[in-house]
Amino acid sequence: MSEKHEWRHIFTLLKLAEMGAHRRTAKISTEYLAGKLGASQQTASRYLIELDNGGLIKRTITPEGCLIKITDVGVRELKKLHSTLRFLIEAEYPPSITLEGLVFTGLGEGSYYIAKEQYRKQFIERLGFEPYPGTLNLKLTTDYDVKTRSELEAYPAVEIEGFKNETRTFGPVKCYPATIENKVKGAVILALRSHYDASVIEIIAPFFLRKHLKLKDGHKVKVEVLTLP
Amino acid sequence: MSEKHEWRHIFTLLKLAEMGAHRRTAKISTEYLAGKLGASQQTASRYLIELDNGGLIKRTITPEGCLIKITDVGVRELKKLHSTLRFLIEAEYPPSITLEGLVFTGLGEGSYYIAKEQYRKQFIERLGFEPYPGTLNLKLTTDYDVKTRSELEAYPAVEIEGFKNETRTFGPVKCYPATIENKVKGAVILALRSHYDASVIEIIAPFFLRKHLKLKDGHKVKVEVLTLP
DNA sequence: ATTACTACTAAACGAGTAC
DNA sequence: TGTACTCGTTTAGTAGTAA
């Protein structure tokens, strides 16, 4: 929907709406529309035919011009664009940010923490998936990625509460839903352990990522982190 | 500004904003952007170059991708689009409607009314121009135009108050700022007299329109009526 | 007046590739 | 890996014109 070339159509819809065609049937000649679009009469005519074929407008041709009404589908397209823009402009944080890092092997502590029932229950409840009992460690190599990671810490996160058992205390964890390599839905977790520095992130997912994505140490992995509204 | 071909740029800006580039410097490869745009890597590259040249983004090229930040100018473009859409979607009335009618000669009563000092003062104050002492009468010939005129009556108007003198009462008048033949700023006035039916409108303007636009009886005239917010 | 077809021109696109 | 050039191909745009 509204792919690539359809932008001209959305723009044309916008111009038609400026003439009131989203509320009432408006009489608009192709010549007049052409002027508003900064294009030729023929191009305006073609656009209208395409919009009509696409079901975005209803068009009746009369000797004095076209009677044009934007359909509900067309209005919905305009509203969609509007809400996208509103979201972007009003949102405090970017809707998503991308991090890249190199796979490395940790000390296997990931499994230990993830396996804790108190954490697991919360992961399932708040992230919507049951994490594979292990983490994928990524080393951030560029200044950009390290800086981005530190910005991420200030964003609203899915908060996993800490707890304590007989022997020790387990701290709270911040997670961010994320897409790994544009394929797998998982989450970035920050501060699961304190002894990794700001240049490391850990990933959890419903699968064993190393196998699922055929990863080996040193491979570069891209993670698209979704921030919360 | 933002003419014709620049729409692809606005939509590219939108995509960049979705990656957070309107708030922070984001690392975005041309390949990645291409995916979001549904275009080739080369096209994405070209778009970024064009946006950069146009001052809409600030771009730094690194071996791992482009660091991109939408400039204030670029953000302003997005906000402009947003407010246009918001206005269209939230407004109760279309921002403008177009009427067409044929010039005809009335009984000369227009001058009589327009010349009344009590009306004149209000026209100058509320429309921002001193009307030529006469009206251009237009006969609406199509169902569409008559229907549109009747819709117009329900829209918010510049209200001119009525008054009475020794001999009689002069009723209130509704006017709508309008552009005549895409050239002259004037106003449509409704219900100045009651004995014309719904298929007639009268136009006032700072000039003698018949002379200024070289109009004769039977000529078709286009009027773009601006409704009020 | 209009709309919109056909035939042509101009512009945008993207594969290949250099860096 | 990246970006971005050239250049052949595809697509969009327009002039002329029929209906």
Describe this structure in words.
2 copies of one chain form a homodimer. Chain A has 229 residues and is an alpha+beta fold. Chain A has 2 domains: 7-90, Arc Repressor Mutant, subunit A, CATH 1.10.10; 96-226, Riboflavin kinase-like (Elongation Factor Tu (Ef-tu), domain 3), CATH 2.40.30. The first copy, chain A, has 8 helices and 12 strands. In chain A, strands 4-5-11-10-9-12 form a 6-stranded antiparallel β-barrel. A 3-stranded antiparallel β-sheet of chain A has the order 1-3-2. In chain A, strands 7-8 form a two-stranded antiparallel sheet. In chain A, α1 packs across α3 and α2 packs across α3. Chain A is elongated, with a radius of gyration of 26 Å. Chain A starts with 6 loop residues before the first helix and ends with a strand. The model of chain A is unreliable at 1-5 (pLDDT under 50). Chains A and B meet through α1, β1, α4, β4 and α7 of A and α1, β1, α4, β4 and α7 of B. The structure holds a DNA duplex (19 and 19 nucleotides).
Could you give a short description of this structure?
With 229 residues, the first copy, chain A, is α+β, with helices and mostly antiparallel strands.
Biggest interface between protein chains, with counts per chain? A-B, 46 and 46 residues
Strand-residue fraction of chain A?
25-35%
The first-level CATH class of the largest domain in chain A is given as: Mainly Beta
Tell me the number of structural domains of chain A. 2
Q: Do you know the CATH topology of the largest domain in chain A? A: Elongation Factor Tu (Ef-tu), domain 3
How many DSSP H or I helices of chain A? 8
N-to-C SSE series of chain A?
HEHHEEHEHHEHEEEEEEHE
CATH A-level architecture of the largest domain in chain A: Beta Barrel
Overall number of strands of chain A:
12
As an assembly, this protein is homodimer
Task: Please give the radius of gyration of chain A in angstroms.
Answer: 26 Å
